[in-house]
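USER:
Before I trust my own judgement here, I would like a peer's view. Write it directly below this note and I will take it from there.

ASSISTANT:
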Amino acid sequence: VHATTTLPTGWTDMDFGGPGAAGSASVDAKGVWTIMGSGGDIEGTADHFNFAYQTVTGDATITAHFVSMVPGDLTYTKVGPMIRAITADDVTNGDAQNVTMDMTTAVGVRIQGRDDAFANTQDNIPPVLSLSQPQPVWLGLERIGKNVAGFYSLDGKVWYWGGGTLTLSMLTDQALIGLAVTAHQDGTLATGVFDNVNIQQGAQLVYGLESCPAGNGVMVSWQPLPGADSYNVYRAPASETDLSKFTKLNTTTVSGTSFSDAGTGLVNNQQ
């Protein structure tokens, strides 16, 4: 049994959109976060959920290790990091632009958002990471200006871009960044458990990564990160997660945002 503590300095917990049961958030002495939330969904044109968050100025990245959940709805309970615009009536109406990187009860990890393209929240289908039941995984969101990208990791070291970048024109210098939980079953409380919760100023993860065939090899390109003056490029089999086994490809730092790999064994982007 771990004694619970108040939330760390700078954090707030609040229900948004008037869910049918009051949510809560706590952190124990070992840094394990327990977020409880009710509500019908984070979806459509208005949300009903609980949110533990900081108000963060400028570009920022949140990462958290999802540990477990106690669901409300047996398919679409959603728990995970959120970046949310600040509006005057959002706590009552739950209608602000936002992006979440969700672990669901029975579908897997999904990135979704109410953004410039979709006032009625859209999510990715199929999921970013398809799972029939929740399992521990690292989840992350990164804000650069008015753009938000989602990431996941199996070990907290090698991060995978979730695909797509959502633009939120309602984002000002400040945004709400934290962990959200909705039961997808109003009046019932669902629980999300996390550890290694971390919000960092600035962009931390490369996004927009794309590849295309380049002769007997592959060309990769990515979006520039503010503050980064150069990059290193590594290669490993898709199943490899041990960073010590990755091969560094560049002999000098890469100042641009693309790199051609024509190394031995690569055949038309197949390996």
Q: What stands out?
A: The chain has a mean pLDDT of 90.
